[in-house]
Write a structure and sequence with these properties.
With about 280 residues, the chain is α+β, with helices and mostly antiparallel strands. It has eleven helices and six strands. It is elongated and about 80 Å long.
Length: about 280
Amino acid sequence: WLGRMFRWSEWLDQWAMLDVFLIGFGIGYERVAPFLPIEVGTGGWCVVGLAFLSMLTRATLERREIWRRIGPNVESLDLDQEYIGCGHCGMPIAAHQEGQACPRCAAKVWRYKPQSTMRTMAFALAGFFCYPFAYLYPMEYNYQIGKMEGYTIMTGVMKLIDAHFLLFAAIIFMASIVIPFLKLFSLSWFFISVRTHSVKQLRLKTAIYRLIKTIGRWSHVDVFTVTVFLPLMHLSGLLAVYVGDALPAFLAVVVLTMIATEFFDPRALWAAYLMEPHE
């Protein structure tokens, strides 16, 4: 059971985003503090500490050593036997056992994930559909003394620049604008490459896949920013902040691209290359 639980913990780690929440908390706090006398309490500092410890744990964890200690391990390989590496723990499995559960992490072992490319593109297309709504419509509405004003993501970035919060503006711009576009563009590039059996720039594509899988979760920082300060900004008849129409669409883009990246099998990029004869 230990291998199965560690596999699930690795998957859940992508969705446990305390470190991302911490950045959103900082941005939200800076936006609220000039208007309201607030301070971070004991629970808030505990969350900050937990977020830092989570980042430290992720940075120092040697997952290959954990898998070796969980076992079982393959001591030697038969040179006459073809093997498939488990996509989760890396354990080599005999090719004739494809589709069976890995003895170490209990995940099904496939040479290539079944229908992974089509599933990836389906979720990417759904993300493309939500993408324009996320950026053309307001992310939030600010009500101040009878006047309602909407702010898009780009407007929010400009407001942070005007307030001289350049670091936070750069974070929001990268996380909310650059990263979602990079993920959608990259996933489309991967899909076209697999369908056309392209063997060009395979190392670059693999590196980009690893990059977008790692940084994709940081696009939630804008959502967390709104989550932190929106409940506080309500002064009856004077000031209020409401969720805009773009927030559900933006959240959909982030979640859909994360699922699409999870579905994609980077080994499919190399399938055409492996079928070609090489000296």
